[in-house]
Structure formats: structure tokens, C-alpha cells
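Explain the record.
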Amino acid sequence: MKSVHLLLLAVSVFACGESAVVYETDFAVVPPGWYNDNWSTSSSQGAYIHQNMPGGGSPQIYTFLAHMYSNTTPPVWYFVPDGTDSLVIDVEHSIDVFTTSNCNFFIKLLYSDDTEEYIFHQQISGNGGYISTEPIHHVVVGPPEGVWIGFALYAYNTIYYATMGHIYWYVTSLNATTYGNSLNLEPSTWASIKSALWEY
């Protein structure tokens, strides 16, 4: 028998006029059901990464990886209401990086059909720095009816012998809001949700 396990959070969509909050978090704690590796969280700093690279030490090359994402096992998906004309993702963050190595930082919007897109992507390649506190504003126009979404936050840093620098990245809020003329979850949609959750 086929078993489908979906951890459904924030399905109770809070509608106000022509907008609805699908999901929001301040990352005071790791969101329920998400996988986390090397991110710290606090009520004052949100989700954050601190890494200092003083240089010297072992010549061994290794990769520092911090990732936190919702498509775990079972996955955590958030349902976008029927009637959505646009999906808007807003992220408050600050990033301060200087490195003599190679770094990548990104936030992804995940879809339940195994597709994805970047909300934020910053690459730094050797002897470079990047500082920003500019909020991220990402718009998806006309998402498919009945779509489920998730999120992923990643940081990669390849460390070489004598690598110097620092990484300070704080993600203090993430908000997914839908807009449309008629936002609702039709009875047929609720039926399909229950079927996905309880079909064995």
C-alpha cells in the first residue's frame, strides 16, 4: 500500500482582504520538522552562522557546510491557497563575509514537484568580501493551483591551508504571503489534503 507522509504546518491560512500569510518565522528556534546542521538560533539573532578563519593550521582541505531546510523525511510543506495571483517571499537578513577561500550562500524556494528557485544567492571567490543588510523581496507570479512550498538555507565554505577571514550571517525573519482576488481553500482541496495525509 502506498503511504504518503506530509507534515503540514500553517495550513490555517490567515486571510485579510486579498492577502494571506502562508508561513512566517523569526527563527527564534528551528522551525518544527525542519532539518538543521550548523545553524544556531536565538530569539534576538534569529538563525545565524559564525565562522572565524585565523589562517595557518593543517594543510588539509575541507568544506564547512551549514544547511537548514524543510524538505526532510517526512517533508514539511506549506500550502498556497487556490486563487493566488502572486506569492511574495520577504526575508530580513544581514551578512558580513570576508574570505580568502570560496563561499556560496543561498536561500531557496522549494516546490513539492522537486523543482526549486533561488530567493537569494551570493558567491564569493577568494580574497573577497561582501556586506549587506538589504532585505530580500522575491515574487512568484501565477504559481500553479494547489502548489506546496518549502524553504532551504545553505552556506558553503571551502577551507584551505592559511585561509583567513570570517562569516557572520543572520536570518531574522522569513515571510511568505499570497495575493489574489479570491483566496480560499476549496472543499475539494481540503479533501485532497486529507487524502495525502491519511492515505495508506
